[in-house]
Amino acid sequence: MSRIKEKFVELSAKKEKALIAYIMVGYPNENATISAVRGLIKGGADIIELGFPFSDPLADGPIIQNASTVSLDNGTKLNKFFNIVKKIRKETDMPLILMTYTNILYHKGYSKFIAEAKNAGIDGFILPDMSIEESKEYLASAKNAVDTIFLISPNTTKSRIERIAKLSSGFLYLVAVYGTTGVKIGIQNYTLNAIKEVKKITKGKIPVGVGFGVSTPEDVKKYIKAGADAVIVGSAFLKLIEKTPQNKLESSIATFTKSLKRQTIQT
Amino acid sequence: MKYPKDGRFGEFGGKYIPETLVPAIEELEENYLKFKDNKDFKRELDYYLKQYAGRPTPLYYAKNLSEKCGGAKIYLKREDLLHGGAHKINNTLGQALLAKKMNKKRIIAETGAGQHGVATAMACAVLGMKSEVYMGYKDTIRQKLNVYRMNMLGAKVHPVKSGSKTLKDAINEAIRDWITNVESTYYLLGSAVGPHPYPVMVRDFQSVIGEEIKVQMKKISKTPDIVIACVGGGSNAIGTFYPLVDTNAEIIGVEAAGKGLKSKYHSATLSAGSKGVLHGMMTYLLQDDEGQITETHSISAGLDYPGVGPEHSYLKDTKRVKYHSATDAEVIDAFLMLTRTEGIIPALESAHAIAEAMKVAKKSKKSESIVVTLSGRGDKDVEEVQKYLSKHVKN
What we know:
The complex is a heterodimer.
Chain A lengths: L2 H11 L4 E7 L5 H14 L3 E5 L10 H12 L4 H14 L4 E4 L2 H7 L1 H11 L3 E3 L9 H7 L4 E3 L1 E2 L5 H10 L4 E4 L13 H14 L5 E4 L5 H9 L4 E4 L1 H9 L2 H16 L6
Parallel strand pairs in A: 1-2, 1-9, 2-3, 3-4, 4-5, 6-7, 7-8, 8-9
Chain B lengths: L7 E2 L2 E2 L8 H14 L3 H15 L5 E3 L1 H7 L3 E6 L9 H14 L4 E6 L3 H13 L2 E7 H6 L1 H9 L3 E5 L6 H14 L4 E3 L10 H9 L1 H13 L5 E5 L4 H7 L8 E9 L10 H4 L1 E5 L2 E5 L24 H8 L3 E7 H15 L5 H16 L5 E6 L7 H11 L3
Parallel strand pairs in B: 4-14, 5-6, 5-8, 6-7, 9-10, 9-14, 10-13
Antiparallel strand pairs in B: 1-2, 3-4, 11-12
């Protein structure tokens, strides 16, 4: 069983939902990434998504775009990224997911990239520009090695959700809003309906995580109440990282993480 | 025209897109297939192309330029004479009409040199639709005349300050807008790039260029011996080449070599790039050793792009089309040469094709014919050229 799957089983036994935290590796530098991860562990995050920057992040809003640029300008390369993953892996058994864009894998070759990532300690992948139609080689390379987390959107048809769910492992990533990451437009009824609809279609065969624009404990509470198995918070962490001095980063992240995690525990 | 059902030209193309766009892309493909051979749609488009845009464009024998080069006869396909000053209107009229049939009220577009933005603004004005255009901040400065034109035509121009602030980033931003407003908005892509079906659709709408060349050359003698067009994303080139790939013509695409292919400052994707995935397609790209897209350079904003239409990648790999390049310096020479010998001011993009034609003509026989697509006029570029000259030419 994969680490991600195990985590969901474990949480389900405790009647908890998952808090998934996203950070951009190398933003604004390697030390901040390590401190932020420690804060996430301390604060009780269940799964960490580690972003590897891409020059053209077309599904991302201004916050992650900026973090990508800063990280790349600071010299984040794959070797350095995998070394950071290895360091993190020494400190935690928590599932680690790599989020980046298709070209980064395509360029190295799917098999080679996935093998290196797995060796460093990565458990799954999220590629926002990888559609199932183009995923054959990616899926073949990931099989029995890492989880492939595909995204669905509130406008995805029922039959397509079924097809995507079949090709997904770990969890299914429901994009909460029409838009890019980190854009705050408040909780939409169509999102709450989509959560219910997706849960109905997937029949508990795969957990459903909700992300994009999720930034406060109230957001977490509402999405969990609507039936989400996990919530993904990203840009809000990056904003916090941006404004917090390095020596307070670990504790600030831990405090914020706790406030989010609390909402995933059913009482 | 052949329609690749799997959305691929050989291994190139495809649709690597965020899931939110899948229903929009499917809706687009469904409607394109429904209307592309529809008689009424074709009649309406034909009406606008003739009466509004000014088709067919002349195939002009550039006698003075030919004599100066001293070899083959050079013919210019005068897309620069179209309404708006470039070939872009062929595609914007087609897609804007399609958007209208699809009941889309809001049109977005990206633009590099501003010619596609202007052509979008014109098509939307005449068809009664609203348009918003994303343009790299760097391009809004070097092509500001086109920004003024778009504003006057009623389009809202959004300068894009992310990344390299050029065409690539304008496309990123347009895609982000589309993801956000997917239900109401039609994305009117201006080049033969992006996810399927855009590369096919743009090619089809631009193929009027090559179709006319075929007919016009037949009246003069035969099919052309050599056909040349400039390639950025590659819309005027694919429109020129596609109807002629089945003939014996030698076909040459010309990329922007900027300050030289050995420098980092060029946009010659096919000449110097490698395969990758960007903007929804698998194609040749300019990228570093880890797949990060690299910044490009060209004196012409319209060719300043690190990718290329997937069909060009296919035509390169199958060796049907040769892809050469011209440096900024060669382009300026060609720009001035055409201006002074023929009294035609070409767009800097099109001057790349002229530069290649001058090289090829010198080496060709007098009995041979070269057709060059003059994709646009150069009024937008006179300030840039003036700047270049005052910097590089003494006295």
